[in-house]
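INFO batch 0412 | record 1 of 1 | parsing
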Amino acid sequence: GIQQLNNGTVSLVPTITAIDVEMMTSTVLQASNVPPPRMFHSAVAHNGEIYVFGGVVCGSQQCSAQSALFSSAVSNALLRFSPNTLSWTNLTATSNATYPWPPARSKHSAALLGPASSARLVIYGGVSTADTLSDLWAYTFATGRWQQIHLSGASTPGPRCLHFAFAIGGVYSTRMQIFNGLWGSSDDSTPPTYFYDSWVYDSTLNKWFNVSLTGQYTPELFSQSYGYDPASNTLLSFAGYQYELNPDQASIPLNTLQVLSPGCPPGYFSPNFTLIACEPCPVGSYADVAGLSVCVSCTAEVTTMFPGSTSKSDCAVCDRSYCNNQATCSVDAAGNPRCSECSNLFSGPKCSNPTLLAVTVVTPIIVALIIIISVASVRWRLKNRLIIKVQSERDEFKREVQEQREIFTIKYEFLRVVPPHELPARLQAKRRGAGAGA
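INFO prediction complete | emitting tokens
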């Protein structure tokens, strides 16, 4: 914690305080292996233990007032506090090519993402000694290893610090939401840039999505404290600093409580924002406000050109089937489709009604063409039948000729005359056969 002293310095108090919210009491815990005091660090709870990462560290417990955004005393230490043993453990390891470790930082954000079987501590952004960061890192508790997350999408929140992060739907969800924050430069002549937006990181898709917040909200705030209720998807924002547009004046501290509802931005929808990622409105619909669970459909026979439309005016494209006979379709100012450039043969709202020209001139021509085609078709069928009949009769004649030839051959074999020089030999053989029989 931080304690402001009268001489313009701050005292960092390295203590752990247990607060009983039901009894409204607090107790300072006497822990062992207490690490050096720090501020602007992050902390998450996992399996009954607290994990602390980074922050600004002052070993002497006394630092000059931290009005500057950057500090040379930033840390990349990962610490674990066990309430059961009241002891601290330093989990920091040496970074190398096999086991990378995130750079030192402070004023970053952290959230606990799941699923629970492979829970991860995910940190984003913050400031180093001289730069505002935009990198995303995940620490897997089961393996004890860090991994830098390289995104598959081009859209990101950009470098920022002093923002807030929470797991949508509660701990061990697969999506982390951040919002607000600022970008600063080590060059004092460059004023900081303040952000009043909100982003969701979907670990399943490995992408960032720009989302919205609804409710009574003062956007020009940073360094607030927050609480999130996943059951009602409600975010509570308390205190913080309001950015002063006049650079000669200091930012204004506030003590207001704001109630916000995270949701999809215009052009997107989600049936259940705490469980289902936002998706762009499909073609033929739009979302003109944030936080919709269902997109608004365009009126009949008009549609949108692309997904993700944000206004009813985007419903300015005719449905493909509205105009007939190759007519041109357009949408008027009232959002109604209109057909134009009908040919001389058709008229009507959809260019589907035949004109007088089509009835008096074109229709007789079409009828004549139909008759000609019908006659030609009948002639072709008759000719085809005659050809088939001639071929059939020819095949039948060939079969009869073949049958007569076979009969003649058989008769010739039976009636063939025995040559004279073979007769004696045959008679003698016959006589021998008769004598042998006697």
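INFO post-check: Residues 4-8 have pLDDT under 50 and may be disordered.
INFO record closed
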